[in-house]
Amino acid sequence: MAIHYHCRHCGVKIGTIDDTAINTEQLGFHLLNHEERQEMITYDQTGNLQVKAICEDCHELLQRNPDFHQNEFLIQ
Questions:
Q1: 20 to 30 Å CA-CA from 6: which of 37, 57, 67, 71?
Q2: What is the pTM of this model?
Q3: Strands 41-43, 49-53: pairing kind
Q4: Could you tell me how far CA 70 lies from the centroid of its own chain?
């Protein structure tokens, strides 16, 4: 099982973790509430985790333009 991170705003691939021995506590998933987990983490058809995060570019853009937080996608 791999864990793939993609930006929730622009869709860019942030990275992948291929370590099958890693657990959810090491990744901090246990700190998310149920709603956050449902929104951020999904499984694909092959059983890999797909995690929505925020890339550095979108994070910087959101810091400069806080009103953009209301948009689900920044770049389409």
A1: 67
A2: 0.80
A3: antiparallel
A4: 17
